[in-house]
Every structure is written in C-alpha cells, then in structure tokens.
Amino acid sequence: MSPDFELFAATPLNTDPYPHLVVPKFLKQADVDAAIADFPRLDMPGLFLPEAVEYGPAFANLLKQMEGPQMRALVSEKLGIDLTNAPTLATVRSNCQGKDGRIHPDASFKLATILLYLNEPWAPQGGRLRILRSGTDLEDYSAEVSPEGGLLICFKVQPNSWHGHHPYIGPRRYLMINYCGDPQQRDAEAARHRLSGRVKKLGRAFGFGRIPA
Q1: How far apart are CA 99 and CA 13, in angstroms?
Q2: 88 domain-assigned
Q3: Structural domain includes residue 131
Q4: How far apart are CA 88 and CA 75, in angstroms?
Q5: Do residues 110 and 85 lie in contact, with contact meaning Cβ atoms separated by under 8 Å?
Q6: What is the distance between the alpha carbons of residues 105 and 135, in angstroms, rounded to a whole number?
Q7: Structural domain count of the chain
Q8: Range of the domain at 54
Q9: Residue range 35-69, pLDDT digits in tens
C-alpha cells in the first residue's frame, strides 16, 4: 500500500470558497482494489470507528499511513495549520442512506478533514460531493467530486466549509480522517460513534437498518 504523498504535495490548494484540494489517483488502482477487498463489510448506514469493525491487512496498512506523521505534516503545510498535537479521529462509512449528504460545514472542534474514497467507478448518479459557497444552495458549488476509488479530498474546517451531495442510497465507501483541535470533544465524538455503532448493530441483528446492495 503506497499512497502518493508526492502527488498530494504537488497538488495546488484551491481557496474558492475555502481552502481545499482534490487529489485523484492518490492511490494506485492495485491499492484501491486491495483496500476495497479488505474494507469493513457493513450493510448498515452511518460512520463507524475502525475499532468497532473487522477489516483485512491492506486496509489496516492504509489506515496506519493515513493517520501517520507524513500525512499529518503534508496536511499541516498545505492548509497552514499547526497539527503537531492535534489528535485524529478516524471513521469509515460503507453505505449511504437517503438523508446523508445534507449541507454541513463539519463540527467546529475539527481543524481539517480528509476523505479518501474507496469505490468502484461511479455511475452518473447522486453521491457526488460538492464544495459549496453557501449553506443553503446545493447548486451553488465551486467543485464537484465523484467518489471514485483512490480519490482524496482534504479541506480546512471553518464556519463556511459547506459541502454536501444529492441523495444516494447504496454502497459508498470512504475513510475519513479528522484532525481535532479539542481532545475532549474528540473523545466525546468517538464515544458517540461507539454507542451509535452498537445501536446500529443491535438493530441489524433484529433485521432493521440494512442498506440494500
């Protein structure tokens, strides 16, 4: 597993309407295929902590590198944020439900967000992330990102870091890494994901909450 950190470093930062960069082919196709094969098998919606799911060695290696010092240094330099002591929060999503994609800027305790998509080629459909100029208009966007396997998007979290997508229901895999400015809020968010993951799994055991393939 060899993420292309040099490509990330060479990708120019876009500041319209807030600092972000899109890096297609951050992973080679062979690494995308390996990560997809080892990605957590979840037929439920929502975000899950890596500790709460099972996955294979290729994805484990990818997760380690995405939370590693090289990625941290690159994001810090690119976005102009000191992330030296910022704890990370890693989550994974396997599926999208109808209410996902609603416009939001990310929680204020987060300093920066990375999304690394791990999907097959994306058909013309919903689920394409848009970098938005406001919190009210999904059609007023500066960029639209198809969640193709190996594509990475990174942005600075600030009050106007609006993003969202048109509704989509079905598999839509990604790894999200957040660098957090407040360790206590980070831990509270992790605890919330931990609890919600248990609730989702309990519901799934009784036949509720399954996302169809």
Answers
A1: 30
A2: yes
A3: yes
A4: 12
A5: no
A6: 8
A7: 1
A8: 5-205
A9: 999 999 988 889 999 999 999 999 999 999 999 99
When pLDDT is averaged across residues 127-149 and rounded to a whole number, the result is: 97
161-185 pLDDT, tens per residue? Answer: 999 999 999 999 999 999 999 999 9
Length of the chain: 213
Within 13 A of 78's CA, how many CA atoms are on the CB side?
Answer: 31
Q: pTM for the complete prediction?
A: 0.94
**What is the average pLDDT across 124-152?**
96
- Count how many Cα atoms sit within 13 Å of the Cα of residue 100 in the half-sphere of its side chain: 20
Amino acid at 197: G
Cis amide leading into 17 (omega within 30): yes
Q: With a cut of 60, say whether residue 139 has pLDDT above it.
A: yes
Cα dihedral across residues 71, 89, 125, 59: positive or negative: positive
> What average pLDDT does the chain have?
93
DSSP tag of 125: S
Residue 121: what are its φ and ψ, rounded to 5°?
Answer: -50, 135
Instruction: Compute how many other C-beta atoms are within 10 angstroms of the C-beta atom of residue 158.
Output: 15
